[in-house]
Amino acid sequence: MISREESISAKPFVKWVGGKTQLLNEIKNTLPNHFGQKQITYIEPFVGGGAVLFWILQQYPNIERAVINDINQELICTYNEIKNNVESLIAELFKIQSAYIGLTEESRKDFYLSKRSLFNSKHISPIETAALFIFLNKTCFNGLYRVNSKGEFNVPHGKYKNPRICDEDNLIAVSRILQRVDIICGDFAKTKCFAGPYSLYYIDPPYKPLTATSSFTSYAKGGFDDNEQIRLRDFCNDISKKGALFIASNSDPKNIDPKETFFDTIYNKFMIKRVSASRMINSDASGRGSISELMISNVISI
């Protein structure tokens, strides 16, 4: 039995490139006017770090059911372990944190690489997978999640002085929120069956890269190219025909090339607005700044 102070707000338990915390107000303003009054099902086909999920479930008690999905098996394993075995996960994370924090910088790197190798072996229990997923995220370079052509996590060690590997209070809060959530793993198209007149999708796919050095499409083995973006557009068409509402985010290629119309063309049946976000658009820190992102929707009261 979980007995913690329930006033603690749940927030993402991992760092996530492209996280949506800074865009929550824009998403709120895009929601239909009646959103807080109707009983609905909320669906995220690409849950990632869950910033929108945790925010929306705490802001809108009228959401009677939520469904999250992601193709990343280790991420979904972690969500499941937080939902169903959070006390055991906390104990495992405390053990890893205690071993790591007291090491020298060089020993920390060796410890990290050994845990990364163990994580990539796939021969570990779900609790170990979840604990290592969180540990690697909290101690890797920039909180990236990147895999190679073999599907192996390959981000190098970061150099954080005192990383909080086990945030016990937040994990308890997240576990409490996830009791309202169905968790599935696979291709985003698996969530089409939940579409209906009382459903809302928030769709946050791997973004179309703006430059050759800004690609985050190695988030999962196989990538997410333009053909996948078009398949996602077809998915949006299909759920719209079933009466579902959706809000989708993506990069805005016009940041780099004002003549680029890829998304404007494929989503020409829907509403598109450009919102401001702070992002890294190339591998150099000088490439960080405020750029526009796309918010695409079939919501009338946008």
Describe this structure in words.
The chain is of the alpha/beta class. It has two domains: 22-71 and 186-208 and 238-297, Rossmann fold, CATH 3.40.50.150; 79-168, Orthogonal Bundle (Adenine-specific Methyltransferase, domain 2), CATH 1.10.1020.10. The chain contains nine helices and seven strands. It has a seven-stranded mixed β-sheet, sandwiched between helices. α3 packs across α6, α3 packs across α7 and α5 runs antiparallel to α6 (126-139).
Mean pLDDT: 89
**Counting H and I runs of at least 4 residues, what is the number of helices?**
9
CATH architecture of the largest domain: 3-Layer(aba) Sandwich
**CATH homologous superfamily heading of the largest domain:** Vaccinia Virus protein VP39
Order of helices and strands: HEHEHHHHHEEHEHEE
Distance between the termini: 42 Å
The CATH topology name of the largest domain reads Rossmann fold
Helix content: 25-40%
Structural class: alpha/beta
Oligomerization category of the chains in this entry: single chain
- Rg, Å, rounded: 19 Å
Q: Regions with pLDDT < 50 over 5+ consecutive residues? A: 281-287
| Main sheet summary | 7 strands, mixed
Overall domain count:
2
Strand content: 15-25%
| CATH C-level name of the largest domain | Alpha Beta
Strand order of the largest sheet: 3-2-1-4-5-7-6
Q: How many DSSP E strands? A: 7
